[in-house]
Each structure stands twice: as C-alpha cells, then as structure tokens.
C-alpha cells in the first residue's frame, strides 16, 4: 500500500495556489485619494500666529507683564470679553 502518492500532493498544491490567486485578486481595490479640509477658524488662528511671529519681542514683553501682574495679584480677568467670546463661539452655526 502506498501512502504518499505524488499526484495527490500535487493536486493539493494546485488547489492552494488557485485559492491564493483568487484571494489576491479580491484584495486589490482601487484606492481613493486622501483629502484634508481646514476650517475657517483654523486658518484664522494660523494668520494670527503669523502676525505674532513678525513681532516676537512685543509678544514676549506682553507675556512678561501679564506674568508679573499674576504674581503680584493685580491681574484682572476681563470677564466681559471672556463672556463675549463664549457667546460668539456657541452662537456659530
């Protein structure tokens, strides 16, 4: 009795190769292009950042004066401006 017939293993290999080929054809899909959209708020923030880069010394001085006022306990938060910003943000469609 023969246990290892070469014809049978050849058929198994042919079946495996056919299955791999079919799977690789199914796996190939046409890919779309990636797309990025930047909101108006982000563009505005970018423009504001460019403005501050032009005058970094003025910004540093303002930051130092605010830090000093906070340390001294004399800094007052402009609550009306904060409230206006919150309202304008939440009212946007």
Automatic annotation (TrEMBL):
GO terms for biological process: bacterial-type flagellum organization; negative regulation of DNA-templated transcription. It comes from Brevibacillus fluminis. NCBIfam families: FlgM_jcvi. It comes from the Bacteria. Residues 1-33 are annotated as: Disordered. Residues 34-87 form the Anti-sigma-28 factor FlgM C-terminal domain. This is Negative regulator of flagellin synthesis. Residues 1-21 have a biased composition (Polar residues). The lineage of its organism: Bacteria, Bacillati, Bacillota, Bacilli, Bacillales.
């Amino acid at each position: 009795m023969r246990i290892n017939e070469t014809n049978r293993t050849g058929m198994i290999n042919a079946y495996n190769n056919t299955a791999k080929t079919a799977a690789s054809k199914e796996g190939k899909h046409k890919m779309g292009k990636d797309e990025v959209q930047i909101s108006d708020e982000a563009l505005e923030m970018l423009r504001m950042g460019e403005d501050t880069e032009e005058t970094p010394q003025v910004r540093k001085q303002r930051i130092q004066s605010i830090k000093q006022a906070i340390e001294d306990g004399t800094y007052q938060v402009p609550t009306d401006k904060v409230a206006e910003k919150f309202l304008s943000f939440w009212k946007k469609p």
